[in-house]
Specification:
Layout (H helix, E strand, L loop, with lengths): L2 H26 L5 H13 L17 E7 L29 E7 L12 E6 L4 H20 L6 H14 L2 E3 L11 E4 L10 H8 L5 H11 L2 E3 L10 E5 L3 E3 L13 E5 L5 E4 L3 H6 L23 H16 L10 E3 L9 E5 L2 E9 L3 H12 L4 H17 L4 E11 L8 H18 L2 E6 L12 E11 L16 E6 L8 H10 L14 H5 L7 H9 L6 E4 L16 E4 L7 H10 L3 H5 L6 E7 L1 H13 L4 E8 L4 E4 L4 E4 L8
Parallel strand pairs: 14-15, 19-22
Antiparallel strand pairs: 1-2, 2-3, 4-8, 5-6, 7-9, 9-10, 11-12, 12-13, 13-16, 14-16, 17-20, 17-21, 18-20, 19-21, 22-23
Length: 662
């Protein structure tokens, strides 16, 4: 077994041993003291030859914590540290099976490697709704922190996120470690699954039992606490405990140290796993409310109905056929710019003028607006209209074109769809607002009724834009990209219009659907419907300021793989990226997708990539900020094989994973 599997196995021993003896003791229907339960648990664990005879976390004796309290008298389980003797298990304190609260913790250690598998949880046998709610919040906090956790971040970042989440939920913590008195500590590294043991330390493991006391000391000293300003960086094949002990600030009568001790594993294949091992014990204590209402199976983009392995070959086939029609432009004295075949917009030359055109569709985002209207009584079609135009405008701007005219395509299954005046008005207003923001003229459009093709309750939305490129200097082609170019990322407002099918699949799995509240307090559906940024005016402003832009890639479908949309053979190195918004973390949580899969599907916080000379990067960032957007000097273009290297999350996308060009 590798190190992470050993950690998982060692923890499982503690969890299964506790379940076995607790089930037996509860069935006996006799008084159960803290000491009785501790000793029974210890004896059961000692039957396994893979672990040492007791735990590393001492005191308390044997590295085991067992604390009993009730929902009427909670003081016993309110503590900053379980090391003081008054918190050691006692033989005169008994479990109350009607309203008891119990905290269990064990710290088993694998004999061969010295890898620990800490396990701890709180069980509640009562029915106080405030305590139940607090317990649910405790475990949810662990899971939110796990979702946020990624390779490349520091332990301090994880601690800061915990502080933000607790504050947002009206919580705080008294938790601290004896080695970091006065500091909030919400977990620690798993030694040897985080940093290798030194040779002299490994020698101690050869004479295990004789050196057990020294081994325990090494484990205690080698672990690094998850605390504010801790700069240790998380890497692949690392493990870290997540164990905050939050309390509700405005309810001081509730327990202040309830905890769920979990372990996050960050695996070599770029996936991650949160070890809980709680469900059997929850069931034993009658805590079904703590078990997730749905056991999530992984939801992929392909399973939601969008498969680029099917779509992309059709696109390249169309590009080949389209190329054969380019000759017809010459009949009018025009010529195509062949390098724009397969780009986000097509460009042709009319004498000394360059023109560009693109057609885009919204996809299925309006279905979410329809669903949300039933929940909030708002149409959201102002955002829907805006986003339909934005999807085309941003594609057009990526070749350096300024939009001139916008045309609408509104296909319905039944003409009566437009009879809803409020919804239609919102659609029109949003469409116009997008045109105004881009300084483009809305020239008209088409609104066909497609009976038996389009669902009569919905509308299929698309837009086309024609634009002009003032001079050849503003024509942005992939052949302009150079080694040494800086890569600037623009921060997205959220999902935009891509990955929507997968987002809808998530809603179907949620008990409250789109009405599910995110940790930031917003509804899931509303967060998806956030308006997309339009960058047409920004690109014009950059050009007018004398900024040289070599190339732009619009991050839509295919996620951050789009950074390497250009045909050149370069390695694109991202040293920084924007943190993903809450909506992406929520989707990841309920799809079970890895970071690799999320970043190849969604924009994950950045939706526009600018390639420009290093000399222009800082000036460009100032203009970006002046216009109300957020930019990031994120990386650079280097010699090498075609790939995108995203250092902060330790992900590499090879060139062959993106096939959108002929």
């Amino acid at each position: 077994m590798d190190k992470l599997e050993i950690c998982k196995h060692t923890r499982k021993i503690a969890a299964e041993s506790l379940y076995k003896i607790l089930k037996k003791l509860l069935a006996a229907n006799k008084p159960i003291s803290e000491v009785m339960l501790r000793d029974a648990w210890l004896t059961e664990m000692q039957k396994n030859i893979d672990i040492f005879h007791d735990g590393w976390y001492t005191p308390p004796p044997y590295g085991i914590i067992v604390l009993f309290a009730t929902d009427q008298q909670v003081e016993r389980i309110n503590y900053k540290s379980a090391r003081p003797q008054e918190k050691w298990p006692r033989d005169d304190i008994f479990l109350n099976q009607k309203n008891g609260i119990v905290y269990f913790y064990a710290s088993p250690v694998d004999k061969k490697t010295g890898i620990i598998g800490d396990f701890g949880l709180t069980l509640y046998f009562g029915n106080n709704p405030d305590i139940k709610n607090l317990l649910k919040k405790c475990l949810e906090l662990n899971k939110e922190l796990f979702t946020f956790l990624h390779v490349g971040m520091t332990l301090g970042s994880l601690s800061s996120k915990a502080e933000i989440l607790m504050k947002k939920n009206g919580m705080s913590t008294d938790s601290e470690a004896t080695t970091d008195v006065g500091e909030m500590v919400i977990g620690h590294t798993i030694p040897d699954a985080f940093e290798d043991w030194e040779e002299r330390e490994k020698l101690l493991l050869k004479n295990k039992e004789i050196n057990w006391h020294a081994i325990k000391k090494i484990i205690s000293h080698k672990r690094v606490n998850v605390k504010k300003n801790e700069s240790l960086i998380i890497k692949q094949e690392n493990a870290v405990t997540i164990e905050p002990r939050p309390k509700i600030i405005d309810k001081p009568y509730l327990p202040t140290s309830l905890s769920y001790h979990t372990i996050a594993l960050l695996k070599k294949d770029e996936s991650k796993e949160l070890l809980t091992n709680f469900d059997e014990l929850f069931t034993l204590a009658g805590m079904s409310y703590m078990i997730e209402p749905m056991k999530k199976q992984k939801i992929s983009y392909q399973e939601s109905g969008v498969d680029y392995d099917s779509l992309d070959p059709a696109k390249t086939l169309a590009q080949k056929a389209g190329k054969q029609t380019a000759k017809h432009l010459t009949n009018y004295g025009f010529s195509e710019i062949s390098d724009t075949r397969g780009e986000s917009a097509f460009v042709w030359k009319q004498k000394n003028t360059y023109m560009a055109s693109v057609t885009e569709s919204l996809g299925t985002k309006n279905l979410i607006a329809d669903a949300m209207r039933e929940i909030t009584n708002k149409t959201y079609y102002e955002n829907i209209g805006y986003d339909t135009v934005a999807s085309a405008l941003n594609d057009l701007a990526s070749v350096g074109a300024k939009p001139l005219t916008v045309f609408a395509f509104w296909a319905v299954g039944k003409s009566s769809w437009f009879d809803d005046i409020e919804r239609t008005t919102d659609l029109v207003n949003g469409w116009k607002q997008a045109c105004d923001d881009a300084q483009a003229t809305w020239g008209g459009g088409e609104s066909p009724s497609y009976n038996n093709i389009v669902n009569p309750e919905t509308i299929a939305l698309g837009s086309s834009v024609v634009g002009i490129i003032k001079s050849k200097k503003r024509l942005l082609l992939d052949k302009n990209v150079q080694v040494g170019d800086r890569i600037l990322l623009l921060k997205s407002s959220g999902i935009n219009a891509n990955g929507i099918s997968l987002s809808r699949a998530v809603a179907k799995k949620l008990p409250k659907g789109y009405a599910t509240e995110l940790p930031n307090g917003k509804l899931y559906g509303e967060e998806i419907l956030t308006k997309t940024h339009i960058y047409a005016s920004l690109i014009k402003e950059l050009f007018d300021a004398g900024i040289t832009i070599h190339y732009i890639s619009n991050i839509t479908g295919h996620g951050l793989r789009k950074v390497m949309r250009g045909r050149g053979t370069f390695t694109y190195i991202l040293e920084k990226i924007f943190d993903p918004q809450e909506i992406f973390l929520f989707i990841q949580k309920y799809t079970g997708l890895s970071d690799y899969e999320m970043y190849e599907t969604y924009n994950m916080g950045q939706d526009y990539v600018l390639f420009l000379p290093k000399t222009d990067s800082q000036k460009a960032l100032r203009i970006i900020k002046k216009l109300g957007f957020e930019g990031l000097d994120a990386g650079y273009v280097a010699n090498g094989e075609k790939q995108v290297i995203i250092n902060p999350i330790n992900i590499i996308y090879k060139g062959e994973t993106l096939k959108v060009r002929e």
